[in-house]
Specification:
By secondary structure, this protein is α+β, with helices and mostly antiparallel strands. It folds into two domains: about 90 residues, Phosphorylase Kinase, domain 1, CATH 3.30.200.20; about 220 residues, Aminoglycoside phosphotransferase (APH), C-terminal lobe (Aminoglycoside 3'-phosphotransferase, Chain: A, domain 2, Alpha-Beta Complex). It is about 50% helix and about 10% strand. The protein contains twelve helices and nine strands. Strands 1-2-3-5-4 form a five-stranded antiparallel sheet, with helices on one face. The chain has a two-stranded antiparallel ribbon with strand order 6-9. The radius of gyration is 21 Å and the shape is globular.
Amino acid sequence: MNVSSPLKVGTTDFLEEERLSQRYSFLEREGLEKELLIPLPCDASKRRYFRLSNCLLMDAPPPYEDTRRFHLIAQHLQSVGLTIPNIFAADHDRGFLLIEDLGELPYRRAIEKGFSEELLYGETIKSLAHLHSNMAHNTESIASYDLELFIDRACLFFEWYDHFLPVEAKNEFIELWTEVYNNQAQIPQSLIMRDVMVDNLLWLPDRKGMNRCGFIDFQDGLWGPISYDLVSLLEDARRDIQPHFAQKMLNVYFGIFPKLSQEDFWKSYALWGAQRSTRILGVFSRLAKRDGKPNYLAHIPRIWGYLKSDLEHPSLRSLKTWFKKVMP
C-alpha cells in the first residue's frame, strides 16, 4: 500500500487498511503470511482474535489495548501453574500476539453439551484458590486496585447510564463510595484477573484437575482482594447464577481456607460485587450508546439484581439509601 498517495477512502477505511497491512507484516515476520485467518466472534473490547492452523492471532490495536499487560499478567499466572494460553510471538509496539489455542469449548458451550456445572465451576474455584495460595505477595510489578481507580470505575455509572443525576447526587455518590472503600474489610490480597466469567473460561477435558480450567481475557489484572474474582465468577453479568449454587461454590473455597474470616470475606464480597455491578451498568450502557452494541442491554436487569442483593449488606447501608433515593 502506497501511504503517500491521496486517500480515496474514508478515514475509518484507511485505518482498517493500515491495520490489515500491519497484521500481514507481523504474520510475514513469523512465516505465517500464507495462513488462512478465521475470525472469532468479537466482544466488548477492540481486541480481535483469528484462528490459524496451530495458534491464535490476537490483534489488540494500541492505544486502546496493551499487549504488554497481557504478557505480564500471563507470566504471573503461568508461574503459579494456572492454565492460560502460551505466548509464541509478540509485537507489542503494534499490538499483535501469537498465542496458544486452548480450543473451542467455553464454559457456556460446555454446560450446553452436558458437562456438569458443579464440576466446571468447582475447578475454577480450586484454580482461584491455588492462585491465592501461591501469589500472596506482590512483586510490585502489578498495580493495585487503588481508591482512584475504584472511584473512576464506579463513576462510569452516572457518566453513561440513562438517568439524569444532579451535581449534588454525583458528589454524594463519590463520597459514599470513598467511605466504603476506606472502611473495607482487610482480607488477603492476590493477583486478580477482574473478568473471570462464563465466556472467559475454557474447558479442556483432556487435562486433569484444575488444569482443565483455562483462563483468557486477563490483561486488566491488578493486585486486589481475593473476593474480587470470586464475585466476578458468581455474579456473572451475562449468565444467571442461582444464590444457592454460588453459596455451594463459596463453601468449596472456605473449605480450602478454613481460617479465613467469613465475616470479613462477605463484607468484601458485597463491596466489590456492588462496585463491579455499578461499573458494568455504566459499561454496558456505553457499549449501547457509543459503540452501537445494544445487545448488552439485555443483561441490565440481571446486574441490577446482583447490585440490590449486595447492597443489603449492613456495611453498604448508605449506598443502598442513595440508590433508593436517586434510582427509585
